[in-house]
Design brief:
Oligomer: single chain
Strand content: 15-25%
Largest sheet: 4 strands, antiparallel
Bound molecules: glutamic acid
Distance between the termini: 29 Å
Radius of gyration: 15 Å
Helix content: 25-40%
Length: 141
């Protein structure tokens, strides 16, 4: 079952989010990711595999300082239902303009109809999940 963590406050968000994900590992998952907001927008980092791997990915990232400076973010451990456990399918998912980042637990039942509509409208959908189309839908409102 997936895990979701969110934080906004005075502390740096990244350690809160990563520690939160580590506490939820017992639930089982196949991939993990974070999205952090700063004054330039939203940065997401995600990958298949363990939270420790995500933590390492972020530590090695050239934008590590920017990522670590954020005080607001969300994080997710995924238990795949729609699409295999790949990095592309890991959450968070963003809309076409990157204005939002979404993590999701559960199933978006009519995702195929929504997917077809967004593709017909000229959007690119980068994952096989039922979640990414929700991010497109929310961002288009
Ligand atoms: N249905 C979503 C997916 O497959 C969410 C899975 C979950 O609850 O972790 O990406």
């Amino acid at each position: 079952m997936c895990g979701i963590v969110g934080y906004t406050g005075k502390r740096a968000a990244m350690p809160v989010l990563i520690n939160g994900l580590k506490k939820l590992e017992y639930r089982g998952y196949d991939s993990a990711g974070v999205a952090l907001a700063n004054n330039q927008g939203i940065l997401t980092r995600k990958q298949s595999g363990k939270v420790a791997g995500l933590d390492q990915l972020i530590s090695d990232d050239p934008l590590h300082k920017e990522l670590s400076a954020s005080h607001c973010g969300i994080a997710h451990t995924r238990w795949a239902t729609h699409g295999p456990p790949t990095t592309a399918n890991a959450h968070p998912h963003q809309g076409p303009n990157g204005r939002i980042a979404l993590v999701h637990n559960g199933i978006n039942e009519n995702h195929n109809t929504q997917r077809d509509r967004f593709l017909a409208g000229g959007n690119t959908i980068t994952s096989e999940t039922d979640t990414e189309v929700l991010a497109h839908h929310i961002e288009s409102q």
